[in-house]
């Protein structure tokens, strides 16, 4: 197998793994949303939880709630580092969906060019990202 073929195969495997993870996260959000709608006790707990996480979308609030109901403040690994905190070794991340912009491609994998502007077209997609709650971090000393 050539290097180009191996690279293409790895890219395909990564795409499939990402799609599977996206599907898993989306299904979990749907289950939690249904539980929130049908169970008054869960709805009450979720309302209190969502009030602590106003900067996240309702879908991401549901995802965080389903994975770590006690979360109070979430951020990514590097953001915690910037804030002078380190994620403790062995902590499990909380998966949420984040928007990203990428170049639109045709069936052959070539960038799509907008005929009016001559620039490549962009599209918004959602990717699974990992965040951690403040309770999963320690202050960096020295």
Write a structural description.
- Strands 1-4-3 form a 3-stranded antiparallel sheet. The protein has a two-stranded antiparallel ribbon with strand order 2-5.
- α1 (3-38) crosses α3.
- It is globular.
- It has 4 helices and 5 strands; from the N terminus they run αααβαββββ.
- Helices cover 46% and strands 21% of the residues.
- With 142 residues, it is α+β, with helices and mostly antiparallel strands.
Widest beta sheet: strand line-up:
1-4-3
Shape: globular
What gyration radius follows from the Cα positions, in whole Å? 19 Å
Q: Please give the count of helices.
A: 4
Class computed from helices, strands and strand pairing: alpha+beta
The fraction of residues in strands falls at 15-25%
SSE string, helices as H and strands as E: HHHEHEEEE
- Poorly predicted spans: none
Number of strands: 5
Mean pLDDT rating: 90
Q: What percentage of residues falls in helices of 4 or more residues?
A: 40-55%
The largest sheet is: 3 strands, antiparallel
User: End-to-end span in angstroms?
Assistant: 50 Å
Produce a short descriptive summary.
With 142 residues, the chain is of the alpha+beta class.
Secondary structure topology:
Layout: H1 3-38, H2 40-52, H3 58-67, E1 74-75, H4 77-82, E2 85-87, E3 94-103, E4 122-133, E5 137-139
Notable characteristics:
142 residues, alpha+beta, three-stranded antiparallel β-sheet, two-stranded antiparallel sheet, 4 helices, 46% helix, globular
């Amino acid at each position: 197998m050539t290097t180009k073929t191996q690279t293409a195969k790895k890219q395909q495997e990564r795409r499939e793994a990402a799609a599977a993870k996206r599907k898993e996260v989306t299904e979990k959000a749907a289950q939690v949303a249904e539980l929130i709608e049908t169970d008054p006790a869960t709805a009450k707990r979720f309302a209190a939880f969502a009030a602590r996480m106003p900067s996240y979308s309702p879908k991401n609030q549901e995802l965080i709630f389903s994975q770590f109901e006690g979360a109070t403040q979430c951020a990514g690994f590097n953001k915690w580092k910037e804030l002078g905190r380190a994620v403790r070794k062995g902590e499990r991340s909380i998966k949420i969906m984040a928007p990203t912009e990428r170049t639109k491609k045709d069936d052959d994998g070539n960038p799509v060019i907008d005929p009016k502007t001559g620039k490549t077209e962009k599209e918004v997609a959602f990717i699974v990202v990992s965040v951690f709650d403040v309770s999963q971090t320690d202050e960096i000393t020295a």
